[in-house]
Amino acid sequence: MKNYKLSTRLFSEIFWKTIFGNTDSESHTRKELLEEINTLNKLRLKAEYNTGSISFAGSWSLYSLIKYFEPSKIVEVGTFIGKSTWSMAKALDELQNISTIYTCDSSNDLTIPWKGRTEIKQFKKTTSTSMLNQISDKIDFLFLDGRINQEDTSILSNLLHSNSIIVMDDFEGMEKGVANLFALRRMELLKNHFLIYPCKQNYLYKLGFSSHSLTAVLIPTTLIELSRQDTV
Asked: Which of 226, 227, 217 lies closest to 16 in space, CA to CA?
């Protein structure tokens, strides 16, 4: 008998339709989130290293992923002005779970003006290796918006668990997202994780976004199941 095969490309399309479908009724929240993270642009004036930031489509992708999978312990590499941190924290607050986000930036010491329920532990001017060495909790959701160091993979082998989800920004060409994937693929713990490509731009346009997303996901196959009916 021949196996049924579903390509990474096709599965990625199905994945994002499901993830965004779970939040498609939250247009008011989407507008609110855009207004909130736009206020963070003023932090650029205080940045020692002023670089690019995640697009709004990328921010909504993170928000929607958190709302769908409901993780508790989140680690982020690459805080900068905090748009991605804020997007994840907002989703966690709406889930009303007791949650923590650990986030580091090796170049800047900016403070995210977050006042919500979710705890954000910032590691300012701190490398990913140094931050990870200070974390003892198991990580449910890892967001990489900075290139991880060689030492990080051995530390992550002890912090991640079999159901951990890894999200990588700047996943195109030879940008840091692709480099991070190569580093992570050497980890035995992630051998059964499936790669989800960034959402296609034409689908984002249909959803009303003018920006694109470079957000890719490594999801454990244990979190994927077949359903007899459409669910969100």
From this structure: 217
Residue 121, CA atoms < 13 Å, CB-side half-sphere? 12
Q: Are 83 and 54 in contact (CB under 8 A)?
A: yes
Q: How deeply is 207 buried, as exposed, middle or buried, from its count of CB atoms within 10 A (0-12, 13-18, 19+)?
A: middle
Which domains, and CATH codes, for the chain? 18-223 (3.40.50.150)
Give the Cα separation of 62 and 145 in Å (integer): 12
Secondary structure of 167-199 in the HEC alphabet?
A: EECCCCCCCHHHHHHHHHCCCHHHCCEEEECCC
Helix (H, G, I), strand (E, B) or coil at 220: strand
pLDDT digits (tens, 9 = 90+) for 116-148: 999 999 999 999 999 999 999 999 999 999 999
Structure-block tokens of residue 13:
């399309």
Tell me the per-residue pLDDT of 162-209, one tens digit each, with 9 for 90 and over: 999 999 999 999 899 999 999 999 999 999 999 999 999 999 999 999
Q: Specify the pTM.
A: 0.95
> How far is the C-alpha of 212 from the C-alpha of 197, rounded, in Å?
13
Residue whose entry in the numeric block shows the structure tokens 């002005």: 81
DSSP string of 47-116, one letter each residue: -SS------HHHHHHHHHHHHHH--SEEEEE--TTSHHHHHHHHHHHHHT---EEEEEESS--------S
Query: In which element (H, E) is residue 121 found?
Result: strand 119-124
